[in-house]
Design brief:
Blueprint (H helix, E strand, L loop, with lengths): L6 H4 L3 E5 L11 E6 L4 H9 L7 E4 L5 E3 L4 E7 L7 E4 L3 E5 L4 H10 L2 E2 L11 H7 L2 E2 L2 E2 L4 E8 L4 E5 L4 E3 L2 E3 L5 E9 L1 E2 L7 H12 L19 H7 L6 E2 L2 E3 L7 E3 L5 H19 L8 E3 L4
Parallel strand pairs: 2-5, 3-5, 4-20
Antiparallel strand pairs: 1-2, 6-7, 7-15, 8-16, 9-10, 11-12, 11-15, 13-14, 17-18, 18-19
C-alpha cells in the first residue's frame, strides 16, 4: 500500500519495516509504514494526515502478537519508548501512559505503597495492550482498576472517556465507538498492607520458576477456559515438547509456544492450530487463542 505523507514525516517513518524486529516471537513480515510518535501532538498530526481507511495497528513490546510473513498493509504505530509517563495522582490514583511496561507499573505501585497492582508483574506487555484485552495474571485483571481513559481517534482528536463507557469481560473489551485507541489511563489501587510488601518480588520469582522467560515467546497463547487452565489441558494432552518446524510447545509451561531461533510465523500459527485441535479431540474443549494473529499469508 502506497501512503503519501507530508515532508515533516517522510524522514521519520520506516517503510517496509520487518515486524520481526518489533515482536517478542521475532517473526513477522514487513509493515508498509512503522512510525513512533514523539508525543501526543505528533501522534495526532500523523493520524490526521493518513488517507481515510488506512489500516492502523498498534504495538508496544510486541507480546501477544503474531504477524504473518506477508506483513501488514497500512501503518503500525509503536508506543514503547513514546508514551512512558507514569505518575501518582492523589493517594491511590496512578496516571499511566500506554507505552509503559506493565512490569514497571507493578514495581512503581510497590514503591508508592499501593496494593492490588502487583499482578501487573506477570503481564509481559505494555499498559496499552493490557487495556485493549483486559489482560490479567495471578488472579488480577486490568479493568477493575481503570477509572478513566485518554483516547485518540483516526482524525487525531483526543478525548477522555470514563471506564463505565466500556463493556468488559474476560480478555475482552468492547469500546463505545470504533477506531479509538488508548493513549493513557487513570488507575486506582488500594493502600498496600504491610504483609504485601514482598508480593511483587515473590510473583516475579514465581514467574521465573514457571515460565520460559528469556526465550522467544508471545506470553500465554490461549485464554483459560471456564473453570480450568489451558496449560493443564495442553499438558494432559501430551503436547509439551511438541514441535513443528522451528516452533515448540514449552516444556516449562505448556501454554507457551517458543521460537527456538528458526521458526517462521507459519510454523507458529500451524502449531497453535495443532494444539487447539488436539485439545479439542482429547478433552472436548475448544481453546481460544489469546494471541492476536494479523497480516497477510506470503
Amino acid at each position: 500500500m502506497s501512503i503519501a505523507l507530508p515532508e515533516e514525516f517522510q524522514n521519520r517513518v520506516l517503510r517496509d519495516e520487518p515486524m520481526s524486529r518489533h515482536t517478542s516471537w521475532r517473526v513477522g513480515g514487513p509493515a508498509d509504514i512503522f512510525f513512533t510518535p514523539r508525543d501526543r501532538a505528533d501522534l495526532s498530526a500523523f493520524l490526521r494526515h493518513l488517507p481515510a481507511g488506512t489500516p492502523v495497528y498498534w504495538v508496544g513490546l510486541g507480546s501477544n502478537l503474531l504477524v504473518r510473513e506477508g506483513g501488514l498493509r497500512g501503518v503500525v504505530i509503536g508506543t514503547h519508548g513514546a508514551f512512558v509517563r507514569l505518575e501518582r495522582r492523589a493517594e491511590t490514583h496512578v496516571y499511566c501512559e500506554a507505552g509503559v511496561p506493565c512490569t514497571r507499573l507493578a514495581r512503581q505501585c510497590v514503591k508508592w505503597g499501593l496494593g492490588e497492582g502487583d499482578f501487573f508483574a506477570g503481564i509481559p506487555g505494555t499498559l496499552g495492550g493490557a487495556l485493549a484485552m483486559n489482560a490479567g495474571a495471578y488472579g488480577g485483571e486490568t479493568w477493575p482498576h481503570v477509572v478513566a481513559l485518554e483516547v485518540v481517534d483516526r482524525g487525531g482528536v483526543q478525548r477522555r472517556r470514563e471506564a463505565a463507557e466500556y463493556r468488559i469481560s474476560y480478555r475482552h473489551v468492547e469500546a463505545p465507538v470504533g477506531d479509538e485507541w488508548f493513549v493513557a489511563a487513570e488507575l486506582q489501587f488500594s493502600r498496600r498492607k504491610a504483609e504485601d510488601a514482598d508480593r511483587v518480588r515473590a510473583l516475579s520469582e514465581r514467574r521465573k520458576q514457571t515460565q520460559p522467560l528469556g526465550e522467544w515467546s508471545c506470553g500465554s497463547v490461549f485464554t483459560n477456559p471456564p473453570g480450568d487452565h489451558a496449560a493443564r489441558l495442553i499438558e494432559a494432552a501430551g503436547l509439551k515438547g511438541q514441535r513443528l518446524g522451528g516452533a515448540v510447545v514449552s516444556d516449562k509451561h505448556a501454554n507457551f509456544i517458543l521460537n527456538e531461533g528458526a521458526a517462521t510465523a507459519r510454523d507458529l500459527e500451524q502449531l497453535i492450530a495443532q494444539v487447539r485441535d488436539t485439545v479439542q479431540r482429547v478433552h472436548g474443549v475448544t481453546l481460544v487463542p489469546e494471541v492476536r494473529i494479523v497480516g497477510e499469508v506470503q
